[in-house]
Amino acid sequence: MNGWFGDYPASLLIDWTDDSVWLQNPRQLTPSDLQHWLQPIRQLFTGKNNPGPRRRHWQPGWSQTQYHQAFSRVQHYLAAGDCYQVNLTMPFCCPEDLTEQSPLNLLQTFEPRFGGYLKSPDGTLFSVSPERFIRIDGQRIETCPIKGTLPRGKTAQQDQQLAQQLRDSDKDLAENLMIVDLLRNDLSIHAEPHSVKVEKLFELESHANVHHLVSTITARRKVGDCAVDVISDAFPGGSITGAPKKRAMEVISELEAQPRGAYCGSLGYFDDAGHADFNILIRTIEATQQGAFCWGGGGITVASTADDEYQEILAKVGKILATPL
């Protein structure tokens, strides 16, 4: 599952508010073409081919003690000057075959800005990602890294206090700024000189389970540079690797429990009109017939503490794992 690619002649836009479906296509379709597109969608959302949703049992890939041990190794590398930040992650495993399950519960619960659902012969991805990797609109390039997280509060007052705490956190602001600098460099590879700009810095976004700090970096693409190269040369995203990226990836490979698979990869599209939009595959379930994985993690800096980072992982994925699927 290192790469799933497809060429799609049309797309379906599903409007949850009025249960309408819009077929977007550059050419006229025959009635048989329409049935070919619509029948799988009807089956998916009416549950004809899959059992009903229920809460699943997920087992963490690491105990809290094992996470602390890996965290300590990351701090060793940070203290030695190998890295400024390392994104340390861990998997949660479900032994059941979830490939035929509907994504509806997850999509309705999280209303993800950059979520997605992809089913292939190799498996199924259920993504409620809040993070954009790269968007290309003509010559405009945009990336929106997330760094800085606190859980939602149980009351409106507590929720507001946590949001303000995140805005005022020197540790989270510094963590975000490191990745902004990294992605400014990544975009500059295919950007016109002096066109890379930070349009938004440390903007608060609130999601179903957590508050995040999000920054927005834009650039003007060099004339003649291919959109595919813009994406591939910035890959993988700096927010889910660390800084400097190459050394952070080496530390990740050494310390994490197993390869990440699709997690922290990207799901998106290119179209014929010069647009592209790709997410970061966080908050994502990767399912095969042999079982499913959902990962969680966060950026580790010298100011991080193991207990706080472990709780941040649970805040990020706990609501996903508790959602019936």
UniProtKB/TrEMBL annotation:
Q: What InterPro entries does the entry give?
A: ADC_synthase, Anth_synth_I-like, Chorismate_C
Pfam families associated with the record:
Chorismate_bind
Q: Which residues form a coiled coil?
A: none
Highest rank taxon of the organism? Bacteria
Q: Which residues form the Chorismate-utilising enzyme C-terminal domain?
A: 64-316
Q: What is this protein called?
A: Anthranilate synthase component I family protein
